[in-house]
Amino acid sequence: MRTIFCLFDSLNRAALGCYGGTDIPTPNFDKFSARAVTYDNHFVGSLPCMPARRDLHTGRLNFMHRSWGPLEPFDNSYPELLKESGVYSHLITDHLHYFEDGGLTYHSRFASYDFIRGQENDPWKAMVQPPVDRLREKMAKKHYDFSGGGRVNDPERLRIQHTINKESMLEEEDMPGPRCFSSAFEFLETCMIILEPNSLLSFPVWTTLNMVLRIWENSFQESFRVLVDLRLKQSMNCVTRFGR
Q: What's this model's pTM, rounded to 2 decimal places?
């Protein structure tokens, strides 16, 4: 049996049709919810991003003893435990904080990983002197303050970096989220067929929905392509199973 674990980072429950949302069409999530189990009694353990991920990696609440930060040397991380037991795991993520000071040591627990660049304030695209006037016209003033001119020592430079990254994102497929899924499909199509039956694919995507899919050998591609909106507890014990 192969496992696909998807973590959506900022997706509001009210935006999903399977939870009664009507403002945004979510046909693929609704299809999957109809043929799966949809959980509606989920309580977040630790927030925001890295504390929540430490909960997921270790199975215990991060906020019981510390705040935002990396995995500790004494933490038992489930991808690392899987690796030690001979289970191959692969992480696909556009989550910048995995690679920032203070947020490291999560991605290295997997057997391999793919970092999709460009999300949030990722220092991905270089621009010494940003075209502030043009960027100001594109972005809302309440979110982006260009008064510092976008210089490298501008306190708002991190936020402005997001606008610089978006200069290279002309189509939907250029965005980090779709690129995460494209990388996942590529991994499934080229690697899963030669891996042992026990393997894990994990990809956090920048969109507070947690989803665990257990997909059986002869149906994983079909099931994965109708990727869903599913609310799960932050626990490896909560899974959705597909028969052959």
A: 0.75
